[in-house]
Amino acid sequence: MSAAETTPPAALGRGAAAPRALWHVILVRPEAMTLALLILGVIIASQLSPFFLDINYILRSFTLSAEFAIVALVLTLVIIAGEIDLSPAANMALSTCLFAWAQASGIPMPIAIAIGLLAGLAMGALNAFMVIALQLPSIIVTIGTLTLYRGLAQIIAGDKSIRMPDWFIGIDKVLILGIPATVVIFTAFALVLGLILAGTIFGRQIYQIGTNEVAARYAGIRTRRIKLVLFLLMGLVAAVAGMLTASRLGSVRYDLGLGGELQMVLMAMLGGTYIFGGRGTILGTFLAAWLLVVVSTGMTVANLLPAIQLTVLGVLLIVAIIATNLIYSRTQR
Amino acid sequence: MNALRSILARRETGIAVMIVLFTIAVSLYKPQFFTLNSLRVILLLTPLVMIAAMGQMLVLVARHVDLSMGSMLGLSAMITGMMFRDMPYIPWPLGFVVAIGIGTMLGLINGALVTLFRLPSIIVTLGTLNLYRGLTFIVSNARQVDRQFVPSDLKGLSQTSPIFGIPWIIFMAFAVVLLTYWFAMHTRVGRQIFAVGSNPVAAPLRGVKVTQVTLLVFAISGALSGLAGIMYASRWGFVNPSNTGFGFEFQVIAAVVIGGVSINGGVGSVVGVMLGVLLMGCVAAALPLLGIPGTAQGAIYGAVILVALLIDRSVRRQGISGLKLVRV
């Protein structure tokens, strides 16, 4: 708006909005907000505790939420495509319970892993079937499947926890060039998805679907196929994330990843993904994941109860979505 | 003949038939299901869900959704319980005022966030679901309010009965149902909720104040969650920061959508929701008889939501953009 006042009217085409200044384009966007908050968070946290200036400490803290962060990357794509998936945390629990149950009953490990991954894929396929083939709204479908998957996990595992074999435990302790393996996986996956989203036709088509699905279909984009791919990827990645969690915890219970949907949605929203679709970047979610780690680790260092952290996350979600919507309404062209 | 056909075509009839068929099927297998005692069990399972379902129905009819009900229930029950514990001299009926008041306030916060910033209610209430749960831990210092602190008169509401051995809380639940029926079907504001939900663009053009109506449905949803909160204290005699109301919203949503409320707004009937709640109650009461462990309940709620979506032909393609509030 301020740009419109500073540009001479003669330079404008009739009815066209003024071009935004370069600094405006670069700075007034949600990812910039995330980055600023991240820097602010690190500064505040390092005042609280000197641990924060130790990069290894932050890396180790990141392993605690790396699995959710990995899923949040895919969730970002799903939200950009104009859908939402609240079921991945429950998917993590069910696929991992199936996997753990299979390997505990003597099925060889590779087959057990395949069972878990296939289960995740099947759950993604069920979501996709309800949303794409039956044309049901994804919000309520995934609320239903969230309850269903978690409930099935509870039936399979009961109240017991299933132990993992020793060699399977501890992927978060494995260091690759001094960086925990899950963090490496997250970063690599973010890089791949970011390149796909920003640099390929497939990626641009995801944005187009989210901006206007009808127009996208008339433009010859296979909207159903792309959404199917996204939901299937969601299921598969959730299953992988579930196994990473099992490896970190050393045992599996039905409540694995309970409440993870909040954190995943929060990471996407904090990273500036537009809840109504069509806008958002992987970079934003990537930064938001680190921001969330700094915030929750800072709260742990400050000795806040986990329950209070829950409150803070809830407030953050609401603040993030308000801020993102404001920024987008400012820059709407 | 036409009248008969129109009765048969109604959603309510379908649910009633499902209840009858389910009862017959279970009774054939386990005859003790078909007794007055199991009717009592079913009725005792339902009042909390019944009350909250009325609120959720109004929210869904207005084309929103309230995921924070369980946490609103928990927080209002906790504050009321702590009031009983720390101020035992307070007359116990005041607990109803406090619980409903707190619930209303929490619901208004949801409504204000949704209307003021034009946010989708699903994300807002996902946030407040966790926010209110966290607040419950904070105000209670993560400690449970034990049985001895809940007034015995309050607990008596779920045990003593004015007539036929049916406890008070069941009558209260049905009173709420009747009130909701009158409100939704026979008041101007009630009909406006349906107008907003069936066409958010047209409603303001006909003079419906969409913002006020939206605030109102969220406030009602909160108030009824608060009422369900104090009834939880009455029914179970304690309030626990982590258990009380946890996962409650999924039971409520399952009952409401099986009761024929369209998640696209504008469609829903009090009778249908009431039957939906009773059907869920029948299922919950039959599980132990059939030897199915209680852990299966979550899966059943999820399956019910999905099945209800499948049979609901009024649900058309909307996506999340269908929930976007229209700027007037």
Summarize the structure.
The complex is a heterodimer of chains A (333) and B (328). Chain A is mainly α and 333 residues long.
What's the helix-strand series of chain B? HHHHHHHHHHHHHHH
Contiguous runs where pLDDT drops below 50 for at least 5 residues of chain B: 314-328
Biggest beta sheet summary of chain B: none
Rg of chain B: 20 Å
Number of strands of chain B: 0
The CATH class designation of chain A is Mainly Alpha
CATH topology of chain A: ABC transporter involved in vitamin B12 uptake, BtuC
CATH architecture of chain A: Orthogonal Bundle
Oligomeric nature of the chains: heterodimer
Identify the most extensive interface between protein chains. A-B, 52 and 55 residues
What does this structure look like?
The complex is a heterodimer of chains A (333) and B (328). Chain A has 333 residues and is mainly α. Chain A has a single domain (17-330), classed as ABC transporter involved in vitamin B12 uptake, BtuC (Orthogonal Bundle), CATH 1.10.3470. Chain A has 15 helices and 4 strands. With 328 residues, chain B is an all-alpha fold. Chain B has a single domain (34-313), classed as ABC transporter involved in vitamin B12 uptake, BtuC (Orthogonal Bundle), CATH 1.10.3470. Helices cover 68% and strands 0% of the residues of chain B. Chain B has 15 helices and no strands. Chain B has helices at 2-8, 11-29, 36-45, 47-61, 69-86, 94-116, 121-140, 152-156, 168-186, 188-198, 202-205, 210-236, 248-258, 270-289, 297-311. The longest helix of chain B is centred in the last third of the chain and has 27 residues, at 210-236. Residues 314-328 of chain B have low confidence and may be disordered. Classes of the chains: A mainly alpha (333), B mainly alpha (328). At the A-B interface, helix 8, helix 13 and helix 15 of A face helix 7, helix 13 and helix 15 of B.
Which short descriptors sum up this protein?
heterodimer, A: 333 residues, mainly alpha, ABC transporter involved in vitamin B12 uptake, BtuC, two-stranded antiparallel ribbon, two-stranded antiparallel sheet, 15 helices, 4 strands, 70% helix, disordered N terminus, B: 328 residues, 68% helix, disordered C terminus
